[in-house]
């Protein structure tokens, strides 16, 4: 939720201060205003209320449902006319357009990423062939844990291992910049290590931080699903347990 300040062209600190959602700390995306006059991204305040926090994040006044908010035409019109950089800038795109026009550009951007392999498609009119997969469902089973006490394994599984339903990147609303970066620096090196031979080793970890309701858990679940990894959900009570 929200649009990263770094994507805007010539965004002053003064303007950013008045166009920033206090939940996601980004520029408003589909801004809505509650009955006490405070404004948030529509998804941010919706997630806030869905997590059983029925009060305004700023003044703490009661806020029963997201229906208590109204679409802020003034702010949304202002943000829509501001120029932003293409989300594929890191791939080489130098286009900068009004936010309202950027979505159409990104759909055909020559530097957009292939949703299958995560690599740059290249020319919008050129053909793109995904490289053959290196890893599959037939990968040999890891036998490193065979000698560990089964009761300890069961205890750990009961405490921190989360059962996952298959998830795709499209199941995570928004966060396009974050999703593309995660694919590039985390998912792709795991699935296609042959592409990184001779390069620096990819990072072994990634830190997702932010207030509740900003999509961190969904991103973690999607990473685990896409890489066929195990998702560990560790609580304080689990850290203090006997094992």
From TrEMBL:
Keywords: Metal-binding, Zinc, Zinc-finger
Leader peptide range in chain numbering: none
Boundaries of every RING-type domain copy: 21-60
GO molecular function: ATP binding; ATP hydrolysis activity; microtubule severing ATPase activity; zinc ion binding
Classification via InterPro entries: ATPase_AAA_core, MT-severing_AAA_ATPase, P-loop_NTPase, Znf-RING_euk, Znf_RING, Znf_RING/FYVE/PHD, Znf_RING_CS
Gene3D superfamilies: P-loop containing nucleotide triphosphate hydrolases, Zinc/RING finger domain, C3HC4 (zinc finger)
A Pfam match: zf-RING_UBOX
Family: Belongs to the AAA ATPase family.
Protein name (database record): RING-type domain-containing protein
């Amino acid at each position: 939720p929200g649009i990263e300040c770094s994507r805007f062209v010539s965004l002053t600190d003064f303007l950013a201060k008045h166009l920033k959602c206090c939940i996601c700390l980004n520029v408003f995306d589909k801004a809505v205003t509650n009955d006490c006059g405070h404004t948030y991204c529509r998804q941010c305040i919706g997630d806030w209320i869905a997590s059983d926090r029925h009060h305004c994040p700023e003044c703490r006044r009661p806020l029963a449902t997201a229906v208590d908010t109204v679409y802020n035409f003034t702010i949304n019109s202002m943000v829509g006319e501001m120029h932003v950089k293409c989300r594929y800038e890191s791939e080489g795109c130098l286009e900068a357009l009004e936010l309202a026009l950027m979505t159409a550009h990104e759909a055909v951007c020559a530097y957009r990423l292939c949703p299958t392999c995560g690599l740059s498609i290249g020319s919008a009119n050129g053909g793109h062939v995904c490289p053959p997969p290196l890893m599959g469902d037939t990968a040999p089973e890891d036998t490193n844990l065979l000698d560990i006490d089964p009761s300890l394994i069961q205890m750990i599984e009961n405490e921190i291992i989360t059962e996952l339903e298959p998830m795709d990147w499209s199941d995570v609303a928004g966060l396009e910049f974050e999703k593309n970066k995660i694919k590039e620096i985390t998912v792709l090196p795991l699935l296609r290590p042959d592409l990184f031979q001779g390069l620096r080793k990819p990072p072994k970890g990634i830190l997702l931080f932010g207030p509740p309701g900003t999509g961190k858990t969904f991103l973690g679940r999607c990473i685990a699903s896409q890489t066929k990894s195990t998702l560990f959900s560790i609580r304080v009570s689990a850290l203090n347990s006997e094992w």
